[in-house]
Amino acid sequence: MVTSLVTSGLLLAVTTVAGQAPAYRAPRTPDGKPNFNGIWQAMNTANWDVEPHAAGPSLVRELGAIAAVPGGLGIVEGGEIPYRPEALAKKKENQANRLKLDPEIKCYLPGVPRAMYMPSPFQIIQGQKHIMIVHEFAGAVRTIYMENHTEAPADSWMGWSNGHWEGESLVIDTKGFNDLSWFDRAGNFHSDELHVVERIRARSPETLSYEATIEDPKVFTRPWKISMPLYRRVEPNAQLMEFRCVEFVEDLIYGHLRKQPSK
Amino acid sequence: MNRRILAWVDVLALVIAVVSLAVIPGKAQTRSASARANNIPKPYAPPRTPDGQPDLQGFWTNSTYTPLERPRNVTKEFYTPAEAAEAEKKAAARESELTTPGTVADVHYDFSQFGLDKSQATLARNLRTSLIVNPENGRLPPLSAEGQKRAAERAEIAKRVGRWDSAESNQLDDRCLIMAGAGPPMLNAAYNANYQIVQAPGYVMILTEMIHDVRVIPLDGRPAPHRNVRQWMGVSRGRWDGNTLVVETTNFNGKNPLEGSSENMRVTERFTRVASDTIQYTFTVEDPSTWTRAWTAEMPMRTTQGPLFEHACHEGNYGLYNTLVGARLEEKKAAEAAKSK
What we know:
The complex is a heterodimer. By secondary structure, chain A is an alpha+beta fold. Chain A has 4 helices and 9 strands. Chain B is of the alpha+beta class. Chain B starts with a helix and ends with a helix. The interface between A and B is large, with 45 and 52 residues.
C-alpha cells in the first residue's frame, strides 16, 4: 500500500514551470480529490511558542528538564505576531500567568490553528460532503463542510469551518470562534473576531504543507501567516489513542472543593 | 441487413419487452409472498460510497422513549402502534414533570427548551417494548458471581463516599467525562442523541454529539492492541459483512458507563442501513465478569437534520463547580449549627 502510494506519487510528480522544483500531485480519492486521509502530526515547538524562541526552564520546578521549553525557529512568517499595543500587553500578561491561564493545562478544547500543531496526532477522514479532522488531544473534532456553506450558528472553541478545493489545495475558512483559546503555551491569543483561512496540500506521499492566514482586527494590526509541514504517522496500525484529559485535571480544577475529613 | 429483417428484430424486441412486463410482476408477487411467509423484509440496496462501501454517511439519531429493559408489567415483545403511542405519551409526561418549578431538574434544565424534551426533536420510533431482544424477557441477564461481588463492592463504596464529596465521586456525565451515547454500545442519550457518520477508504468515523466523543474505526483487519492498552471506549475494529458494518470492541478500562460493565467486556455491533432513513443498530455484550450470559439489544437510528453542535461540556461545567461549592457550604452550615447547640 505504502509502496504503491510512493510509486504513484513519484509518477504523478509534475514540473509546473521549467527550471522550478516539481510540484507534487497528491494521489486521488476514489471521487478524484487530493487524498489527505491519514494520521498526521506536526514536528515542531509551535505549541510552546509560535514565535521564534530559545530554550527555557520549566514552569514547574519538580519537573526539571521534562517540562523545560525546547527552542524553536517559529512558524510565524516574519517572526513576530503584529499585535496592537494593548493586545501585546495582554499577551505578556498571559505569558507571565500561563501556569494559571493556559487553557491546555485545563484540558480545554485547543481551538484553531493550535489543534494542528499540538504534540499529538490528528486524523483526516475525508468524506464527500464532510471532511473530519479528529484530534487526539481532548478528543477535539472539526467538521469541514464541503457543501451547504453557512455562517457559524454559534460561537465555539473549534469554530465553524467551510471548505473548498483549489486545485491541489484544501482551503478551509473558519470563523465563529469564542475568545477563550490560545495559540500556544506562551500566551499568544485572539478575540472572538478571529478568522483563520488554512491551505493544506500534499508535498510528498508522507508530508503535507500547512499554512494559515490569521486575521483578528481587535488584536492584530494586520493579517499574518503561519506555515509548517505535517508528517504522516507511518507506524504499522497507527491510530489515535484516547486522551480523555478531563479526568487528569479534576483535582487541579476542583480539588480545593473536596470534602475535608471531619476532625 | 435489409429493412425487413430489421423490422423483425424490432417486433421480436417488442414481444420480449411485453412478455417481460407481464412476467416480472408475477415473479415479484411470488417472491414477496414467500418473503412475507418467512417474515423476511424486502432487501434494501444501500447507496455506495465512491470506494464502494455501503454508505452510512449523514446525521442520525437514536433518541427513543423505549427503555433498555422491558418494564416489569409488560410481557410482550412489541406494542401495537396505539399502545406504543400511549407509552410514548406517558414517558413524555414523566419527562415534562421535571419542569416542576423548584425541582433540581428545573433549576439546571428547562425542559420546555428545544430539544431537551425528546418529543420535540426527531425520535427513532420503534414498536419494541424493550431495546433488549435477548434474553427473550427483554431484561439484562442475572449478574455472574464476579458481577455480584463487583456490584457489592460498588455499593460498599457508595455507603462511604457521598456523591458530592469531590469531583471524582460524582457521576461520569456530571463530570463531562463520558456519556452513555458514546458507547460502545451507543445507548440513547436523554437529549441530543445525535450522531454524524463520515466514511473514507478504510475507515468509518462516528461522532457522538454529546461531549464530541469520536470513534475512528479501522476496517483493515488489524488486531486489537496489547492488553495493557485500556480505554474508556475500548478499541474498535470494523469489517463489512455484506451490507452490514460489524464492529468488535475490546480493551475497555472498566469505566465505560454501561451498567457496571467490566474491562473484560466485548461489544459486537452491527450497523445495517435498511432504508434510506434508517440504520438498524444491533449490539451484543459479552462480559462474564458482570453477567452470566451475553445479551443483545436492537434499535433503529433515523436520519435527522444536521449539523451537530460543539458540546464543550467540560469547558462550561459550572454545574459540577456549583454543586461542590454548595455541598461544602451546607457542611459548613451544619458544622456551625452543631457548634452553637
